[in-house]
Write a structure and sequence with these properties.
The chain is an alpha/beta fold. Helix content is 50%, strand content 18%. It has three domains: 64 residues, Winged helix-like DNA-binding domain superfamily/Winged helix DNA-binding domain (Arc Repressor Mutant, subunit A), CATH 1.10.10; 108 residues, Rossmann fold (3-Layer(aba) Sandwich), CATH 3.40.50; 86 residues, Rossmann fold (3-Layer(aba) Sandwich). Strand 6, helix 9 and strand 7 form a beta-alpha-beta unit.
């Protein structure tokens, strides 16, 4: 993952570094178990003080996103099954599948017949064990949109509810309901926080996110003459937002940037731009915005690769466990 600090932004370098690392973890560019550069290496690479990098690493370790391994370095925390353990289980499963294929050949069962039999058995498992899930997000509207997106990968009988982290922290009833779920899903960078809130007995999975196709197309279709501005909800994510906008609208210049809550810079943004792309959580910019200014959200969606890699295998294991429990009860 390439980190770029922008000294022209009204955001401290430490905030920029933390935001980009956290965004990389949330988006899957820094998957669990990946190693980060040493403090000295990253400081030299970015041209900043080692104490700045060290402090950011410590903050992210405190948040449960990074872990330091003595003698080895700093790694993205493994939010679930350890990488080595996961590989071991995968290899064991592959061996069992190979054994099943060999048995089918000895019994004269064709590959097509075997595939149909396995598919039918899996269908029986899925049909008999619907799951109850909760997705924990930060902003209500975006969280509901994420839930709607995830429903497409769930089985018909599954239930998934949208829950906002702030409400979960404040409402004991919501917290109890979440703890009764078969699985709680959240963003990769919030997994440790949500797990700490729910307790170790509740399975929690973090998934990565990517900019939606609608966002990418909206930026790519802008006229080269557009006076474009970007509004970030949080200061630490402003560099990441700016980089994303510049990536998908590389045919024009980003005129201004601002952070929600900075009245002066937001006012200047509105005066100087005819199109504003705003981060999720900055919808208040729409209130009282002149009709001459177009504004749209820099919306994310669950990364299909992360869903397939991180979520679906866990759902399968929980389904199998519930099916086995139901069979023996």
């Amino acid at each position: 993952m390439k980190i770029r600090l922008d000294r022209d932004l009204p955001v401290s370098l430490s905030q920029q570094l933390r935001g980009q690392l956290e965004y990389g973890i949330a988006g899957g560019e820094l998957p669990p178990g990946s190693q980060l550069p040493s403090v000295r290496e990253l400081a030299a690479q970015l041209g900043i003080a080692m104490v700045t990098v060290s402090q950011v690493y410590k903050e992210l370790q405190g948040a449960g996103l990074l872990e330091s391994q003595p003698g080895r370095g700093t790694f993205v925390a493994d939010g679930g099954l350890g990488t080595a353990q996961h590989q071991e289980r995968t290899l064991e499963l592959q061996r069992q599948i190979d054994a099943l294929i060999g048995l089918a050949e000895r019994l004269g069962v064709s590959k097509a017949e075997l595939a149909a039999m396995v598919s039918a058995r899996l269908g029986r498992y899925r049909a008999s064990v619907p799951l109850n899930l909760s997705f924990v997000g930060i902003f209500p509207e975006a969280t509901r949109a994420y839930v709607a997106h995830l429903r497409s990968v769930l089985e018909p009988g599954d239930q998934i509810e949208a829950t906002v982290l702030q409400q979960l922290e404040a409402d004991p009833k919501l917290l109890r309901a979440a703890r009764r779920c078969d699985l709680v899903v959240t963003t990769a960078n919030r997994k440790t926080q949500v797990q700490g809130l729910l307790g170790s007995k509740v399975p929690v999975v973090g998934v990565g996110f990517i900019p939606s196709e609608r966002t990418r197309l909206a930026l790519a279709e802008l006229s080269p003459r557009t006076r474009l501005g970007a509004l970030s909800t949080f200061p630490e994510f402003l560099p990441t937002l700016k980089a994303g906008v510049e990536r998908f609208a590389s045919h024009l210049d980003l005129l201004l940037t601002a952070v929600l809550g900075d009245t002066e810079s937001v006012s200047q943004l509105i005066k100087s731009c005819d199109v504003i792309v705003y981060a999720t959580g900055s919808e208040s910019i729409l209130e009282g915005l002149p009709e001459s200014i177009r504004a749209f959200e820099y919306r994310h969606i669950p990364d299909p690769r992360s869903v397939e890699r991180d979520l679906l295998p866990v759902l399968g294991r929980i389904r199998e466990a519930k099916a086995a429990l139901a069979t023996h009860s």
